[in-house]
Protein backbone atom coordinates (compact mmCIF):
# COMPACT_ATOMS: atom_id res chain seq x y z
CA UNK A 1 0.00 0.00 0.00
CA UNK A 2 1.18 3.53 -0.64
CA UNK A 3 1.54 6.10 2.16
CA UNK A 4 -1.51 7.88 0.73
CA UNK A 5 -3.65 4.74 0.90
CA UNK A 6 -2.58 4.08 4.49
CA UNK A 7 -3.24 7.72 5.40
CA UNK A 8 -6.82 7.49 4.14
CA UNK A 9 -7.49 4.44 6.32
CA UNK A 10 -6.08 6.11 9.44
CA UNK A 11 -7.47 9.57 8.56
CA UNK A 12 -4.05 11.21 8.83
CA UNK A 13 -1.70 13.06 6.48
CA UNK A 14 0.59 10.90 4.30
CA UNK A 15 3.60 12.60 5.95
CA UNK A 16 2.41 11.17 9.27
CA UNK A 17 2.53 7.67 7.79
CA UNK A 18 6.10 8.36 6.60
CA UNK A 19 7.06 9.49 10.12
CA UNK A 20 5.55 6.31 11.56
CA UNK A 21 7.74 4.28 9.19
CA UNK A 22 10.84 6.26 10.18
CA UNK A 23 10.01 5.71 13.87
CA UNK A 24 9.62 1.96 13.33
CA UNK A 25 5.90 1.89 14.08
CA UNK A 26 5.19 0.54 10.58
CA UNK A 27 7.51 -1.56 8.47
CA UNK A 28 7.99 -0.36 4.91
CA UNK A 29 9.56 -1.78 1.78
CA UNK A 30 11.36 0.57 -0.58
CA UNK A 31 10.67 0.37 -4.31
CA UNK A 32 13.46 0.73 -6.85
CA UNK A 33 12.45 4.38 -7.16
CA UNK A 34 12.85 4.89 -3.40
CA UNK A 35 9.15 5.09 -2.54
CA UNK A 36 7.74 3.39 0.54
CA UNK A 37 5.18 0.63 0.33
CA UNK A 38 3.43 -0.92 3.32
CA UNK A 39 2.17 -4.48 3.81
CA UNK A 40 -1.62 -4.48 3.80
CA UNK A 41 -1.89 -7.22 6.42
CA UNK A 42 0.20 -5.21 8.91
CA UNK A 43 -1.78 -2.03 8.22
CA UNK A 44 -5.11 -3.86 8.71
CA UNK A 45 -3.83 -5.39 11.95
CA UNK A 46 -2.87 -1.97 13.32
CA UNK A 47 -6.16 -0.51 12.14
CA UNK A 48 -8.15 -3.17 14.00
CA UNK A 49 -6.49 -2.05 17.24
CA UNK A 50 -7.81 1.50 16.90
CA UNK A 51 -11.27 2.27 18.34
CA UNK A 52 -13.72 3.01 15.55
CA UNK A 53 -15.40 6.40 15.44
CA UNK A 54 -19.14 6.13 15.99
CA UNK A 55 -21.59 7.72 13.60
CA UNK A 56 -22.50 11.22 14.63
CA UNK A 57 -19.19 12.01 16.32
Supply the key terms.
57 residues, mainly alpha, two-stranded antiparallel sheet
Number of helices: 3
Q: State Rg.
A: 12 Å
| Class from secondary-structure proportions | mainly alpha
SS elements, strand count: 2
Give helix and strand order, one letter per element, not per position. Answer: HHEEH
Mean pLDDT: 89
How far do the termini sit from each other? 28 Å
Shape category? globular
Descriptive account of the structure:
With 57 residues, the chain is mainly α. The protein has helices at 3-10, 14-23, 40-48, and strands spanning 28-30, 36-38. Strands 1-2 form a two-stranded antiparallel ribbon. Helix 1 (3-10) packs across helix 2 (14-23). The chain starts with a helix and ends in a 9-residue tail after the last helix. The relative contact order is 0.19. The mean pLDDT is 89.
Brief digest:
The chain has 57 residues and is mainly alpha-helical.
Helices and strands in order:
Blueprint: H1 3-10, H2 14-23, E1 28-30, E2 36-38, H3 40-48
Antiparallel strand pairs: 1-2
Helix pairs in contact: 1-2
